[in-house]
Hints:
The protein is of the alpha+beta class. Helices cover 32% and strands 15% of the residues.
Amino acid sequence: MNKSKILQMVAILAVLTIIVGSLSRMAQNNSMSLSEYESLHASDSSEPSLTENLQTASPEQEASTEPTVSPEPTPEPPKSTLTGAVLNGDSQAEARVIYSDGFYYEPVSDALARYMTGVSYPAKDSEAAAEGLAVTFDDLSYLHIRHYDFEGNPAEGELICNNYIAQDLVEIFYQLYLNEYQLESVLLIDEFDGDDTASMEANNTSCFNYRVVEGSTSLSKHAYGLAIDVNPLYNPYVTYEKDGTENISPAAAYSYADRSVNFAYKIDENDLCYKLFTQHGFIWGGNWNSVKDYQHFQKTMP
Length: 302
């Protein structure tokens, strides 16, 4: 091979070397690692890095772009402030009979029994206890209801009653509530120190109270938890002297003793309260002859 051909081949190899080198540099300048990409865009992006996404994203996250929304916690209903409800608490929850929301009955707890003892229920050292009590706490139920007050607002109420009428009462008061029948208050008689007159003057609807019939030595049906007085100020208890004189209890109810007059909260045979109680087998004191007890409904055990 002559010298000129050798020089020509060297020149060609040199040109090829330059071209290959240029292409290699171009390829390197146009390629970019993940770390170089992150460095370039870190200042203008608040999104997680690609390497972070590749390292931490789960299959579920990669498949969905929807944001995760945590459910809001359901608020608990407000706790009752009624004395009996607070004292019973949830101690009798296993034996509780729920008729509807806010309408239930259950046994009397030890705490509630202690609260009642010496007030609506005789103390152990009382004369009544010495003679033998007609009922025990096992015979009684705590009853929680809802009702509408005289301002037309929903309110809570509570009663102590005989087990025998607990289901009747919860059904009756539920129907009264659905019809927005107004009761000024429904509180335990113990809130009035067991004083029936004070409870009537406050127009408080009540049931159990271990006492005798007014003006006698006989136990009232209230002592058995088998009688209830409804809106008693507007529906008084009336007795008569031999000369025809009326005795009205409470005395503040004098203007409501005349049942020929129409007025609000009056119980008569057209009243929803009367209809519901009598449908459940209760006797109304307004139908008695020797006395008139317009507030009073009672039921007799078989």
